[in-house]
Amino acid sequence: MYRLIEQAHDRDEGDIDDTLTLTKEAQSVEEVEAISITKLAESGWELVETNDSELQVVDEFDLVCDSDRFARLVENVFRNAIDHNDGPVTVRVGLHETMATATQTSGDQRTAFYIADDGRGIPESQRDQVFELGETSSREGTGLGLPIVQRIADAHGWDVQVVDSTQGGAKFIFTSVEIR
Predict the structure, then answer these.
(1) Residue 92 within a domain
(2) Structural domain contains residue 140
(3) Beta carbons of 177 and 50 less than 8 angstroms apart
(4) Domain residues for 60?
(5) pLDDT value, residue 136
(6) CA 160, CA 113: separation in Å to the nearest integer?
(7) What does the pLDDT read at residue 22?
């Protein structure tokens, strides 16, 4: 009985933390710095119970961001990949190739990065809703994780979309980012 009460308390505490984070993350980012994506991804990975899942940083680059908020962003994407799959998953972080525009130099064609997993993915019919408050496919989920991701991306001036990963899972693509 005590264990059930403790689990309920932990869930409620997590819900409160997520709600506070959701409110804070909507505020614009003011202080940013260029930080190694490996360092950023590993910091977020440490916040998640990985259940034998694996993190792979495919490309090394510096991302201009608020490192604390980015840790929350990747924590929520990582947790989504792990919690919504039956077994361990491999999560990959890398550069996403984008088309060069007339204003870009030939060396400045990568203005996007991705976080992808090899799990079961997000059905196309649900992709428009995953960033809405309260949207969850899990009984234990709050439906706040991916809206937090959206708000953090918005606060940085980034766009985010979810598509199929080439590995079979979900792929979150973040565009309009500054990469060095």
Answers:
(1) yes
(2) yes
(3) no
(4) 2-175
(5) 58
(6) 10
(7) 45
The pLDDT mean for the chain works out to 83
What does the pLDDT read at residue 84? Answer: 87
CATH number, domain at 140?
A: 3.30.565.10
pLDDT along the chain (180 residues), means of 10: 52 51 64 97 95 96 96 95 93 83 49 96 91 65 81 96 96 96
Residue reference for tokens 């201009």: 64
Residue 180 included in any domain: no
Residue 60 counted as domain residue? yes
| Structure tokens, 65 | 């961001």
What domain count does the chain have?
1
Residues 177 and 156: beta-carbon distance below 8 Å: yes
Phi-psi label, residue 64: left if phi above 0, alpha if psi -120 to 50, beta otherwise: beta
pLDDT at 140: 57
| Cβ contacts of 127 within 8 Å, gap of 6 or more | 161, 162, 163
